[in-house]
Design goal:
Layout lengths: L1 H17 L10 E2 L2 E2 L5 E2 L7 E2 L16 E4 L20 E8 L3 E8 L25 E7 L25 E3 L6 E6 L8 E3 L16 E3 H4 L2 E5 L8 E5 L12 E4 L16 E8 L7 H7 L1 E8 L4 E5 L3 H4 L6 E2 L2 E5 L6 E3 L4 E3 L25 E5 L11 E5 L21 H11 L7 H7 L6 E2 L1 H11 L4
Parallel strand pairs: 4-6, 9-21
Antiparallel strand pairs: 1-2, 3-5, 5-6, 6-7, 7-16, 8-10, 8-17, 10-11, 11-12, 13-16, 14-15, 17-18, 17-22, 19-20, 23-24, 24-25
Length: 461
Amino acid sequence: MKVTKKTISLILIAVMLASCFVVSGLSASAASGTLAKYYATNPNGQVGVKKTIKIDGDASDWSEDMKIAQGGAWDIANHWNGGHENCVLDTTGLFAAWDDNNLYIGWQMVNTTDTWADREGDGSLSDGGRVLDVPLIVCLSVDSKNPCMTGKTTGGDNIWGQKVGGVSFNGTHVDHMFYMSGKPGLGEPAMFSPADSSGNIDYKNSKSCALFKSLGIEYKMAETNICKEIWGLNGSNKPDDVYDDGADWVDFKTYNKGKRPHKTSYDSFYEMKIPLSAIGISASQLTSKGIGAMVIATRGESGIDCIPFDATAMLDNALKKYSKDSSTSMEKEDADVITVPLARVGKSSGGGSVTPSTEPEPATQPTTATETATTTEPPTETQTQTETVTETEPATKSRFEIGDVDRDGRISIKDATEIQKQLAKLVVFDEEQEYLADYNEDGFVNVKDATAIQRKLANLA
């Protein structure tokens, strides 16, 4: 019995370790597979550009070199369940820029209904083919030391009054969420930040809930498409096609075999200006540390699409029925847990935390040095390839136990997973996490630490 338990445990460890060698960059990864080649996070290493953008509803300031994430068209739940609904909440591009005072975020949404529906733009179903008055959410990760947001208030309700669904994050850090209407000028758009250590927000706390107008945040929409190509699923009978390069992908910008050619005048490009002072960061910190960004499109109750694309969050209930209308998808009301990494702005990777720009910069002093090295060791039962290691000095102390990388007060499989994600460069550790991740205390953070935690949990250590 003991031998059997050990063998099974070793197999489980081997399977889990394999997950740390994740391909990132030109392909976004998801729990059930790697997304098709038409998806990309920080394509070609792009992290946005330094440029001042005028927020005027004219997208001519934006260009392809600012693209930090690429999504697919017609890859939302409507495609497989409820196609009669207009698909204007379809995100295909995320863009970023900055200057000395502001961060600029842009996102492209498309409405390819005209290529398959009987009406041009399918206008009669959704306000002339435009985005409705539904929440759009920009998510930022500015300082990894801040609590990750839960998407809820301190009272347990979803932000902005959604009665069901909601959005949260697991393994992906977000410390600012910007809620706004798909119709610029409507409602009271606001920036939300954590009000407590759990990551909940409080409407009565001005630091947790602040209106755009009080912070100098602006956003506008242009009826256009700035992308050179609009790759998307033309014909598909299953959501898993988002993982298949060989599925019926077409460039809707040039596709002419449908009901009619696509008119980009039915597409919507949003541009947004966020003063750096509103998120507590300077331009130099943005370019030296980098921040994360994502956009989530909702139908008022739940996320329906996001960029970077998270198929496991946005398509997990695509084929199930919406409680209020069996002819459309449950994705409109389910709870969405985002797990994919955010796109990077300013720098592809870095320290992940910054000193708020409203406070003096700390004096330069010796810190724990981290550098990436590559070592090759003879293969073991669970290791058959070169591993990435991070050298660290055990100078930093912590109130948390060594191995408690996520600092939740206990050592669990989540801590081993965090190490694997850091080695795959999907997350960035701060100095304390580097210290906590060196579980075997050999001066390096590498796959051996993840293995040691897994063996301990399997009672093999």
